[in-house]
Design goal:
Blueprint (H helix, E strand, L loop, with lengths): L2 H15 L3 H14 L4 H14 L2 H14 L4 H13 L3 H14 L6 H13 L3 H14 L4 H13 L3 H14 L4 H8 L10 H11 L6 H15 L3 H17 L5 H20 L11 E6 L6 H9 L5 E2 L5 H9 L13 H6 L4 H17 L4 E4 L8 H7 L4 E6 L2 H9 L13 H21 L4 E5 H6 L1 H11 L46 H8 L7
Parallel strand pairs: 1-3, 1-4, 2-3, 4-5
Helix pairs in contact: 1-2, 1-3, 2-3, 3-4, 4-5, 5-6, 5-7, 7-8, 8-9, 9-10, 10-11, 11-12, 11-13, 12-13, 13-14, 15-22, 17-19, 19-20, 21-22, 22-25
Amino acid sequence: MNQNDASYHELIQASLAANHLEKAAKTCTEGLSHEPKNALLWIDLSEISQRLGQNKMVINCALKAIDCEPDNVWHIFHLAGCYLQFQVFDRAINALNKAHSLLNDQSSAALWDKLGELRYRVDQLELAISAHQKALSLQPSSVSTRNQLAALLRFNGSLEHAEVLYREVIAMDKGNYQACYNLSQLRRFKPHDDITPLLEDCRQQLPPADKGHIMLHYASGKVCEDLGQYSAAFTHYAQGAKRKRDQRLYDINNDKALMQSLLSMSSALKASAVETPQHAAQTPVFIVGLPRTGTTLVERIIASHPDVISGGELNAFPMALLEAGGKPLAAGLEGLDGDLVEKLSPQALHSIAKRYIQLANNHVNNAPVFVDKLPYNFLYCGLILQAIPNAKIVHVQRNPFDAALSNFKMLFDRGYEYSYDLRDTADFIAAYGALMSQWKTLFPGQIHTIEYEHLVSAQEAQTQKLLAFCDLSWAPECMNFHQNDSASHTASASQVREPIYSRSVNLWRQFESELTPLIHAFEKHGITPN
């Protein structure tokens, strides 16, 4: 590339950084008129098109870049990323296979790491692990590769190997709060373990205002709880939650308004007696409820059945809703608001059902019966049952005090903003409970509720009822869900490797003196301890 080429690219990137899309497009078009074989400029135009929502141009420009430089693996990675943006997994996988064929022992660790990152995004966990292992062999001193590899090993159940890697990261970088947090989540720690000094050393490395303290507080809370130091644990959880809360703007009334909009729309659609879609060839089993209340446990039980595949926490239904409401997938869950819901027409049910199945099949490969374990799907029960009449909805319910505590002490990657304040948590749980009651009234017999406490005390009886509701035959494998070697990508990835246990039942009692604000907030909703 000559200096002129580089200048065009730099000008385009500067315009993009300033969000001057028209200027960036004009500069790029001018550059390509002089250098039509300049692959980097075609990549720039692909990025510009992406921001402008010109979907066909996004792909076409990426393909033009590859035509110009067929062996440039980064361009192929860009194409795969574009396909992933549009949820076209088969073509993304084809692109990654092509990129993989071009890599060899002389390829950089950065290329292998990028391959691993993209393999993970298309649910090819073992290939992703292999790619990061190759990157680490090429660059043994890499902290970031160790972190990525350890996270994936945790998902596939290789907890001891993951712990070794996290400890290596911390030895190389004492201030790596992410590794400290992830290490704390791997298992239950005992007094003779040395994790507390690691967390304290990490804390000393960070400036007082550093955001890393959020993760360290949650990590310290988890370790203190493991050791039975409940008061100290709560102090750390509360300090982490306060720091997290101070970073965000959250109004629970927006969540309540969305719940009401979804209920009103679903009720109106049901009353209109609109023709529902035909019986689908695939049956999704939606596991809904609050996070950290046993949804992953129920998922593992059902997914251990030989006739069932789990898609994990699919975003497929909310994404289908976004598209039906005229919004791009890039809008994310934050784009699902009351205005969008109110614009949905009865005819949209057909497109929602079709698009949902299409998106889900990126992860479940046309399985006749599959599990969708996104907890927040409780919001959409009414639309789900009307768009996909053969869908099964399993509602996992837990003691509200344990549910509130479990949410409060969890640091979520995104969403669940209510959980960083005990009063917000109580209000949200009350609203969620009311919504689920209304769904069950509106759709009698179509939602199966399973109590977490009943499941852990009578696993076989509850599993029999669960499978019967899902029209599945009895399978003894479901009793041994912890032996299921499939990956788990949730916060419960470590716990699902254990047999069923009851130690979390009434755990909130250990924190009762600290939970006074929660108790009072629940009382306003008529929710009192058993």
